[in-house]
């Protein structure tokens, strides 16, 4: 068992099946040692975590949604490279928070995905990040996360 697979098991994490694209794009693109993962929405085993932060969705619910996006990102990385031990570094995460215009806690929400990357990958999971509040996301998802990953 690979080190990251063992870490996932230790954390009790079972990765979801990678979600197929719903439009004219691919889920990831590899260019040299960089892997770009397309935005992953907050779709989990119990369905889509939907709604607006600041408009009925709590920060804690948003963090769970961001974590689910992070799990979906990791599932796409695994689909792209097979063995997650091939991750050299999570370089960057981009987070999009479906929120009301006055919602200012997007970075707190995005910590759900950021914390997951560090839990799973350790120091290699520490990354640069942008968090942007948006008026709407596909299917009214609460959160969407994209990633740039350095791979072996």
- The CATH homologous superfamily is named RutC-like
The CATH class, by name, is: Alpha Beta
Largest sheet: 5 strands, mixed
> In which order are the strands of the major sheet placed?
1-2-7-5-6
Order of helices and strands: HEEEEHEHEE
The assigned structural class equals alpha+beta
Low-confidence stretches: none
Backbone CA Rg = 15 Å
Strand residue content: 25-35%
Termini separation comes to 18 Å
What's the rounded overall pLDDT mean?
97
Examine the secondary-structure arrangement and name the CATH architecture. Answer: 2-Layer Sandwich
CATH topology heading = 60s Ribosomal Protein L30, Chain: A
Number of structural units classed as domains: 1
Number of separate helices: 3
Q: What is the global morphology?
A: globular
User: How many distinct beta strands?
Assistant: 7
Q: How helix-rich are the residues, as a percent range?
A: 25-40%
Protein name: Enamine deaminase RidA (YjgF/YER057c/UK114 family)
Domain Endoribonuclease L-PSP/chorismate mutase-like: 6-145
InterPro entries: Endoribo_LPSP/chorism_mut-like, RutC-like_sf
Pfam families: YjgF_endoribonc
Task: Give a verbal description of the structure.
The chain is an alpha+beta fold and 152 residues long. The protein has a single domain, classed as 60s Ribosomal Protein L30, Chain: A (2-Layer Sandwich). The chain has 3 helices and 7 strands; from the N terminus they run H-E-E-E-E-H-E-H-E-E. Strands 1-2-7-5-6 form a 5-stranded mixed β-sheet. The longest helix has 23 residues, at 59-81. The chain starts with a helix and ends with a strand. The model has no long low-confidence stretch (mean pLDDT 97).
């Amino acid at each position: 068992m690979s080190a990251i697979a063992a870490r996932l098991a230790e954390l009790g994490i079972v990765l979801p099946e990678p979600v197929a694209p719903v439009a004219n794009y691919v889920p990831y693109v590899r260019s040299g040692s960089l892997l770009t993962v397309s935005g992953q929405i907050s779709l989990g085993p119990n369905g889509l975590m939907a709604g607006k932060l600041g408009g009925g969705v709590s920060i804690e619910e948003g963090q769970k949604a961001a974590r689910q996006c992070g799990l979906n990102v990791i599932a796409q990385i695994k689909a792209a490279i097979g063995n997650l031990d091939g991750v050299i570094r999570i370089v960057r995460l981009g987070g999009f928070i479906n929120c009301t215009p006055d919602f200012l806690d997007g970075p707190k929400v995005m910590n759900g995905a950021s914390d997951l990357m560090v839990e799973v990958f350790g120091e290699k999971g520490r990354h640069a990040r942008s968090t942007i509040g948006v008026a709407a996301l596909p299917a009214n998802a609460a959160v969407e996360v994209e990633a740039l990953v350095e791979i072996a």
